[in-house]
What we know:
Layout: H1 9-19, H2 24-45, E1 60-70, E2 73-82, H3 98-112, H4 117-126, H5 134-153, E3 164-176, E4 179-191, E5 197-205, H6 210-222, E6 230-233, H7 237-246, E7 251-254, H8 256-265, H9 272-283, H10 288-305, H11 307-320, H12 331-334, H13 338-354, E8 356-357, H14 360-380, H15 387-409
Helix pairs in contact: 1-2, 3-4, 3-5, 3-13, 3-14, 5-14, 6-7, 9-10, 10-11, 13-14
Amino acid sequence: MTALSILDPARALDQALGEASPDLLRELMGTVLNALLSADADNVCGAEYGKTSPERVNQRNGFRHRDLDTRVGTLDVAIPKLRQGTYFPDWLLERRKRAETALISVVATCYLLGVSTRRMDRLVQSLGIDGLSKSQVSRMAADLDEQVRLFRTRPLDDAGPFTFVAMDALALKVREQGRVVNVACMVATGVNGDGHREVLGVQTSTTETGPAWNTFIADLVARGLGGVKLVTSDAHAGLVEAIAANLPGACWQRCRTHFAVNLMGVTPKVSWPWVKTLLQSVFDQPDAEAVQAQYDRVLTNLETQLPAVHDYLDAARADLLAFTGFPKEAWRQIWSNNPNERLNKEIRRRTDVVGIFPNRDAIIRLVGAVLAEQNDEWAEQHRYLSLDILARARASSITDTTETIAAIAA
């Protein structure tokens, strides 16, 4: 497809109507856009295509094609190429999204460092990258690093209070000192004062230890994280201790999905379907009182038949049922880390392409860019929780705390 240098609207419309094409609007839009691009390139060159002029400062050199997704379909856009310099219609097309640029820079860095060269060659070709110089990679990485740095260090106090927070960690492979090792990539999300989900922070650590989580959460608090009433996570001991140390007054909700996996480990295989059904029945209740009553019945049923399972459930009761202290409309969003698991899948979709990262900076660059894009999307979506639910959640939490203090004093 070749862009027209001169467009005759009447002729183009007459021809399209005569052919009675079912994709009339898409074809007309493509014709108009390519004509505009051609005219814009002529303006950059200082003269029309194919014409001699003393004012000419550059010459055209063919086209490169790029797809443009529109409401009327995908258009084949012919971007004019110049003999000197480059031409790109920023007013029409985006160059690359942050996450895509991050992925390319990570791949290029891996390639330059000689990591899995055969696999990286195929990967680079699949991404449509003919070649990136070291200077191009450096400029691209520097720009991304600055964007990610600003995102990771932004103040949080203006967006708070963050009534509900969720935390999780992913294991990613990185090359360090000639070896491939696993590092923990810690991610925190929360529901801000406007009811939208927000990515609070991301950080890497050699292992998922208590001190690592303590440093991570302390940084979030220093940046303005406050008003937290409930934190949902798995039962990593270091994480639970860090939550208690840095977020006083916040309850801890043990993720029901992770708990089910742990419970399966102490349950005889033949009994697991029955125990799983009993556990699910607890979360199917209509209100907090019914949840507590059903939990009692489950414990009674297990006490004699499966005492080990009974003891495990009994010990986890307070942490597993912490969600009942908040409005029922928020239960599905706070009783497990499933919302964060979906975010993890999106991160994995990008990081699995790289496989082994050349260094930790590359992890932060790619994961940070993915999270920054996700944060922008969440800000444009409908509220994750309504303002009414958040107000009632904070009120119920205050009431529960008051009652607890009164009971202790009595």
